[in-house]
Amino acid sequence: MNYKVLGAFLLVFVFGNLGSINAQEKGMDYGFRNESLSVDERVADLINRLTLEEKAMQMMHDSPAIERLSISEYNWWNEALHGIGRSGVATVFPQAIGMGATFDEDLIFKVSSAISDEARGNHNTAVENGYRRQYSGLTFWTPNINIFRDPRWGRGQETYGEDPFLTAKLGVAFVKGLQGDDDKYLKTAAAAKHYAVHSGPEKLRHEFNAIASQKDLWETYLPAFEALVNAEVETIMCAYNATNGEPCCANEYLLTDVLRDKWGFKGHVVSDCWALEDFYGGHNVVGTPEEAAALGIKSGVNLNCGSVYPSLVEAVNQGLVTEKEIDKQLAILMKTKFKLGLFDSPTNNPYSKLSAKDINTREHRALARETAQKSIVMLKNDDVLPLKNDLAKYFITGPNATSIEILLGNYHGVNPNLVTIIEGIAGAIEPQSQLQYRQGTLLDRPNANPQDWASPNAGNSDATIAVLGISGVLEGEEGESIASETFGDRLDYNLPENQLDYLRKLNEAAGDNPVIAVITGGSPMNLEEVHELADAVLMVWYPGQEGGNAVADIIFGEVSPSGRLPITFPKSLDDLPPYEDYTMKGRTYKYMDAEPMYPFGYGLSYSDFEFSDIKLSKEKIRKGQNLEASLEVSNVGDREAEEVVQLYVSDLETSVDAPKYQLYGIKRVNLKAGSSKEIKFEITPEMMELVNHDGESVIEKGEFKIYIGSSSPSARSLELGAAQFKEAVFTLR
């Protein structure tokens, strides 16, 4: 052995490591590492140590390490729409539109709290193993609180539906669960997206100009964003499109006048991914990447998801923007990293204890099942559900019966135990029962083989369960829906005709035996013929990893359905304005004139509920006063069930067009058969406000009507079997 070589190696190893340790200790002496200083002081110290090139790169979503300051690389891009997404094994909850159908903010808070537990556990585990890749960070670009104004939008599945009040309630709950309640540290950082006035068309989103009046902005498109800002959401993501002539990521009115000045938003703004490239490649408001980078900084975009901000160095050289302006926007962004504890010792952060054992837990799986149960909407039931689980023979069929795709929706995680609908049904029936399966028809095109060996099974089965609908290959984001010829949008409102043909055959073959249609999808669709042909219809959305079990729980009566539609199902697209028209007239339950197929807020139960007359604490009030509305809800059926009690307010005397009525209260109540409960709602001045043509909220004297029931108060709701809603009138003097 050459001892001289070995000795030299040991000297290099020892002194090299001492140098590394000394450098690390020296790094700990930096002011930005000093946890006793204020966040502002630490941020200022950090920025003063950075070169212009380093500043530019720290404002990129994939910000690199700065080794001389012992700063690790960090990727800001993470998704958590209904569970941590794209990062490996995680609990997959129902898609957001399904969570919207729960009408349950307390449940959604539990869901997002579970997601943030898994997010911290995922991040901590990744870092411990040396991974700092995309989708392993703590900044989540969730929730999507855009208003699902038109059923053609493929990404509407990511939202909580068409109503600003419901969207705000669920969005705030989701943000609070993601961000936690520690006095010092954020559990994760949530983002409200896509700001603002963004809901298609997908193909045109990089160049489209959405025109919205001040009334529509402040009545429909902005309230949920304002609610999340008031809830201290950490991030706002600006949208691809332009609004009223300016790209959303360079929109002075939206980003400065409203977001920063009017609402007082203190967090950071991130561009949608490659939206700043659209400044010169789509909207054509500038000509070069350098001009786009400068415009982004001057507009208040703190973080660039994309590839523009490396051009900031040259933009400074060209005099398009100053380093001082960059410092101001970088400082806002860096505060988020400090609030997450990314520059602090893990021992001081309560969320550092979360680990891999907190991912995909038994408790989270149970929560996913409960959420899926409460999301399922029973649209029709001719007294065939619930089924007994010990019938002689069941036939399950349809293109989605065995599909994993229909469990997931978009922006999803993966799970080692995804329960398809056939698996859920198979696991719920008694061993003496027989279950037959045939796919029967393809998803969106006629069978190549004309022979039909499937539908005759409906004639010799005690019940047929047809799992129909659409999936993420037909609707979704611009580039993800690989079977969509319209870039993820659904410009054809109908179910694929081959599915209807197959259902017609099943109906004919079944005779007197029941046919239950289970419909998957993330958006409204034409179910008029399905409603006629099937004896029962369930809308199950994209129900997550426990979807199959949840569907079985409903079909076999382990749980009574309690989901409610968070969006109107029109009878036809002909009943709506053009897709590209962003005016609200003729849209959603508030302004739609045509009778819908299924109304907003609608959903049936296995039990029957009755409402007593409304009692008002006052029948005449003055401006600024509250009043209380109360009534008794009674379960007059023969089984325990949950009712979703909904309050709507209508301004009967207005100086401008106003919604027919607006949702302003939700209370879920579980009642045993024969029991009753008093429900109270506080009617506040905010519920009496009218948005005028200038976008101002005003209160006008006159009469107001209150509706309380189990659906939106339309004749169609009653026709479909919803409980009779109750009305009361009060006068504002």
TrEMBL record:
Entry-linked Pfam families: Fn3-like (PF14310), Glyco_hydro_3 (PF00933), Glyco_hydro_3_C (PF01915)
Domain of life: Bacteria
GO BP terms: arabinan catabolic process; xylan catabolic process
Domain Fibronectin type III-like: residue ranges: 643-712
GO terms of molecular function: alpha-L-arabinofuranosidase activity; beta-glucosidase activity; xylan 1,4-beta-xylosidase activity
Name of this chain's protein: Beta-glucosidase
Keywords: Hydrolase, Signal
InterPro entries membership: BXL, Fn3-like, GH, Glyco_hydro_3_C, Glyco_hydro_3_C_sf, Glyco_hydro_3_N, Glyco_hydro_3_N_sf, Ig-like_fold
Protein family membership: Belongs to the glycosyl hydrolase 3 family.
Species for this entry: Salegentibacter agarivorans
